[in-house]
Design goal:
9-stranded antiparallel beta sheet; alpha+beta
């Protein structure tokens, strides 16, 4: 569900509190998301503006985002006009789902001027529009030409017109409401969800005034679940069920960060998901063909027998026949022998022996190919599982891994790194003086286990299930650490939604690389096993950090 006008108002109160602030840097991190780095009087803040059709929002974020090295044309324009500008104020009109920043800056002559940045968060029409001091559009994230909307054109040089007001009552002025009409139709900023909640509360003895006061005082976000769907607002949603409470802006990140992360990955990684699924399908079909060929090659002795019988019965004629029945001298059984009707007896017998030799030699080759094919299926099954858990940086590392392996050509546009990082972006948490590292792709797993981990550290991995390499940096492995590391290994594995997941653990010194195996594969000499029920809420208690 999207933000309504009331939710936007609550978010803007906090943004307004940090004004005036200076715009230091602007990034476009996806086709629909802009990131503003702001300098306030006290500290630095990061402002997220999303114009995604489903996840459009504006909030102060604490999340780390991967920023592209090559900015889009719109970002270049925003940097030209807005970097160094002061956000003097944030204005929302009529509790509608749009607002604008009042921006103070100087022009090329040094004169003070005022521009406006409009942020419209109206579903598929969500947009960011920069307007100059003469109310002309400088540019917009999404341009709308006249043939698409002749009432409100969003084009460079066009005069800007604000969204038409809905002329509804302001709920914060405690108006008299008509109980016969939906609150959504009467009150500004009210979504159907908020209307249902207030109607439910009124029917259960609460007054409209008290609920509005609760909304005014709230600085929290309450998230409820019903039929696997999320519902949220700044007050508890009593008409649904129990809610989980978050700080307002942190809660918005909880709602949307991972959802838009998947879209970001698809935009950056292109057809990566299709490539992995295509390879899995290709290798699976190939395996069936190889196994059929191997089954045929295992029966190669019959072709030798056919050839022997054709040479033994030297008084028969095979031309013009598609098969012949001859008695086997060893068991006196009649054997039906397929023939090439164009060939005589000797030529048919020669053909049988040639097929026998071919199948006999091919058996060894087919067995090797089947093992390679099974390894490929296992490898891409693991990659496919990793794609469900990764962030943007992890996706780039997987792309590089597939390029290095020759599976894809270097056609993906990955970020150019000005400074080569020593290690990939491995995640870790800290608890009681110990660090627990975990990899989310094969490159991270390989680096973590064989370059970062010390021999006395402990290694955790789901038993015979694709998943993360987890390293506990400690000399004293307590039960608490064992259960926490096992939980992480289970959560970042194919068995994430299973119960009683087996997790093997041992010291790193007991690990060995498998010669010729794919990156990230290891063998374990001796280990213990713990069974764990994956618990995501347990991991949420810790702050996940990155190695760089």
């Amino acid at each position: 569900m999207a933000l309504d006008g009331i939710m936007l108002n609550k978010l803007l109160i906090d943004i307004k509190d940090i004004c005036p602030c200076r715009i230091n840097k602007i990034y476009k991190i996806s086709n629909t998301e802009l990131l503003f780095h702001l300098k306030t009087n006290k500290d630095k803040k990061t402002l997220m503006i999303s114009c995604h059709p489903l996840y459009n929002r504006i909030n102060i974020t604490k999340k780390n985002y991967s920023t592209p090295e090559e900015p889009s044309n719109f970002v270049m324009l925003l940097r030209k006009h807005l970097e160094g500008a002061i956000i003097q104020d944030v204005v929302q009109k009529d509790l509608d789902r749009w607002c604008y920043f009042v921006l103070n800056m100087r022009n090329n002559l040094g004169d003070k001027i005022e521009k406006k940045l409009y942020i419209e968060l109206m579903g598929k029409y969500a947009n960011v529009i920069l307007v100059d001091e003469n109310n002309k559009i400088i540019d917009a994230l999404k341009r709308i030409p006249p043939f698409e909307n002749n009432k409100r054109t969003i084009q460079q040089g066009s005069l800007f017109s604000e969204v038409e007001p809905q002329n509804k009552l302001n709920p914060f002025e405690y108006p008299i409401i008509n109980r016969e009409i939906s609150l959504t139709k009467q009150l500004a900023g009210f979504s159907p969800l908020l209307s249902k909640e207030i109607e439910y509360r009124i029917n259960n003895g609460e007054s409209f005034t008290n609920v509005i006061d609760e909304i005014k005082k709230s600085n929290s976000l309450y998230i409820s679940f019903k039929d696997k769907e999320e519902f949220f607002h700044c007050i508890e949603l009593k008409h649904i069920n129990s809610s989980k409470k978050y700080e307002l802006h942190d809660g918005i990140d909880v709602l949307y960060y991972h959802k838009e992360e998947k879209d970001r990955i698809k935009q950056i990684a292109g057809d990566l998901f299709k490539i992995v699924k295509r390879e899995l399908k290709h290798q699976s079909l190939k395996l069936v063909k190889l196994e059929n060929s191997l089954e045929e090659s295992l029966d190669c002795e019959k072709w030798k027998l056919y050839g022997d019988l054709l040479y033994t019965y030297n008084n028969i004629e095979t031309k013009g026949k598609t098969f012949i029945e001859l008695e086997n001298f060893e068991d006196l059984k009649v054997i039906k022998i397929p023939l090439d009707e164009k060939l005589d007896r000797k030529s048919n017998a020669k053909k049988m022996f040639q097929k026998y030799e071919k199948l006999k030699k091919g058996k060894i080759h087919l067995e090797k190919q089947i093992e390679i094919c099974k390894d490929e299926i296992e490898y891409f099954t693991g990659i496919n599982q990793q794609l469900e858990l990764i962030n943007v940086n992890d996706a780039k590392e997987i792309i590089q891994e597939l390029i290095n392996g020759g599976y894809i050509k270097k056609a993906f546009k990955t970020q150019k790194k000005h400074k080569k990082e020593k290690y990939p972006s491995i995640s870790y948490i800290e608890t009681n003086g110990s660090k627990i590292y975990f990899g989310k792709n094969n490159i991270q797993n390989e680096t973590l286990t064989f370059k970062i981990a010390k021999k006395h550290n402990y290694f955790f991995h789901t038993k015979e299930i694709h998943g993360s390499h987890v390293i506990v940096e400690t000399d004293n492995l307590s039960e608490e650490l064992i259960r926490l590391a096992a939980n992480i290994a289970a959560l970042y594995s194919k068995a994430k939604y299973s119960s009683s997941v087996p997790v093997d653990y041992t010291q790193v010194k007991n690990l060995k690389k498998i010669p010729g195996a794919k990156i990230g594969k290891v063998s374990i000499n001796s280990y213990k096993t713990i069974y764990i029920d994956p618990n995501e809420e347990e991991l949420e208690k810790y702050t996940i950090l990155n190695l760089h």
